[in-house]
Design a protein that fits this description.
With 421 residues, the protein is an alpha/beta fold. The chain is built from 12 helices and 16 strands. The chain has 2 domains: 269 residues, Zn peptidases (Aminopeptidase), CATH 3.40.630.10; 140 residues, Glucose Oxidase, domain 1. Strands 1, 9, 10, 11, 12, 13, 14, 15 and 16 form a 9-stranded mixed sheet that branches. Helix 1 packs antiparallel against helix 12 and helix 8 packs parallel to helix 11. The longest helix is centred in the last third of the chain and has 20 residues.
Length: 421
């Protein structure tokens, strides 16, 4: 049952105010870890936290960043250039690019390379389902490189390219990348149709050029604190990552960060018994090394004092937002999320007139997984089916402020109850 005080919190949460933060973050543009956009978003978020009177601490760390220029993919027989996006951490081609025959390899499994000679060629991979099962491109690229391919084209089933990752898709950061990488470009289903038509003529020679930068850079995890009045060492965490894989990143994850800042605004006027910690992470848009670093730098304190963590990621576009019950990586045991915490969130949402779903994350989990792995109970609110995910179409006009308000109300009240029970 919602108390009168909790109803007052609900009334104060504004979806439009949260949206205003999303708009400012989208204006910053590319916010990948260690970039200028990351620095600009750090300043914006810390300015907001200071304006609301929060104490701020930073956890510094170093992480691999990625920057690129617009790629070239040209079909030589027609002269047409196809729009594409370079996957995160994909290497550059040699200067001037590579010119080679393109061959269809299909799903890109080991048996596919036994029937097709790809030596010195550019392989074309396709997605069999309308989804993101090949988001982790590293194993596919390693397999193609070992067979002698010099590049990779991935045809996405949506009518626009999206940004994948050259990572292997493992939880263990030591196994983050495969031994070999390939220059790669993702194109849309529309571009794929054009490419397949040329392929059917028997003369599909392409020029491919990518220019990328990969280097380690410094960044920080931001923590803002509303100190508890009775148990200040104990705390409840609310988290959202601020980075994006491609500009403007309005939903992923401007939506989570904007809602976090709106919750800060409302709860900054309260006096909880336990401390509330608002965490802005970066380096989520890969194998979550930012959250991993935070959890291991502060592990002893977190395990002892953080009673629960609530994560918000991609919460305003697509179908119903869901909580992850089970997270799966190929190199570790499944990460089972705490049922009591998910039930608590569902009960609060139901009392407010809202409802969230449940899901299994079969290709890795967001950052709450790192907290669960060290023993901190954590849940995530995740809209994983945004069709504009990791594309240039993740724009502010897609973000629904009503969704921001609904989740903002729910998370604020759950966090308040956890801080005071």
């Amino acid at each position: 049952m919602i108390t009168d005080f909790e109803l007052s919190l609900q009334r104060q949460i504004s979806g439009l105010k949260a949206l205003s933060h999303v708009r400012e973050l989208a204006k910053i543009g590319y916010r990948f870890v260690g970039t200028q956009g990351d620095k600009d978003s750090i300043k914006y978020i810390e300015d907001q936290l200071k304006a609301y009177g929060l104490e701020i601490k930073e956890t510094p760390f170093r992480a691999l960043t990625f920057e690129d220029e617009k790629p070239l993919l040209k079909v030589l027989s027609t002269g047409e250039e196809l729009e594409g996006v370079v996957p995160l951490f994909s290497p550059s081609t040699p200067a001037g690019g590579v010119e080679a025959d393109a061959v269809l390899i299909g799903d890109g499994q080991e048996e596919d390379y036994k029937r097709v000679n790809v030596q010195g060629k550019i392989v074309i991979l396709t997605e069999e389902t309308l989804g993101y099962s090949k988001f982790w491109l590293g194993t596919f690229a390693d397999r193609a490189a070992r067979a002698g391919a010099v590049g990779m084209i991935f045809i996405h089933p949506m009518p626009w390219p999206y940004r994948m990752s050259m990572e292997a898709g493992n939880s263990n950061l030591e196994n983050r990348f495969c031994e070999r990488k390939l220059p790669a470009i993702c194109i849309s289903a529309v571009g794929g149709l054009k490419l397949m038509h040329v392929l059917s003529t028997g003369n599909c020679r392409v020029q491919m050029e990518t220019k990328t930068l990969l280097e380690e850079r410094e960044s920080v995890i931001i923590s803002g604190f509303i100190k508890g009045t009775e148990f200040p060492e104990e705390r409840v965490g609310i988290l959202a990552h601020r980075d994006n894989a491609i500009a403007p990143g309005a939903n992923d994850n401007g939506s989570g960060t904007g809602t976090l800042l709106e919750i800060v605004r409302v709860l900054s006027g309260t006096r909880p018994k336990r401390t509330l910690e608002f965490i802005s992470t970066t380096a989520e848009e890969d194998a979550t090394p930012g959250a991993w670093t935070y959890c291991h730098v502060h592990k002893a304190d977190l395990v002892k004092n953080m009673k629960a963590l609530l994560d918000m990621d991609m919460i305003s576009v697509g179908s119903i937002v869901k909580q992850v019950e089970r997270g799966e990586w190929p190199d570790c045991d499944p990460i089972i999320h705490p049922d009591w915490l998910m039930n608590m969130a569902d009960e609060v949402a139901a009392d407010l007139g809202y409802g969230f779903g449940r899901m299994t994350a079969a290709w890795g989990v967001p950052e709450e997984g790192r907290f669960n792995q060290i023993g901190v109970p954590a849940t995530v609110f995740w809209g994983a089916d945004d069709p504009y995910y990791h594309s240039i179409h993740d724009t502010i006009d897609k973000v629904n402020p009503n969704s921001l308000k609904a989740l903002g109300e729910t998370v604020a009240i759950v966090a308040w109850r956890l801080a005071n029970q």
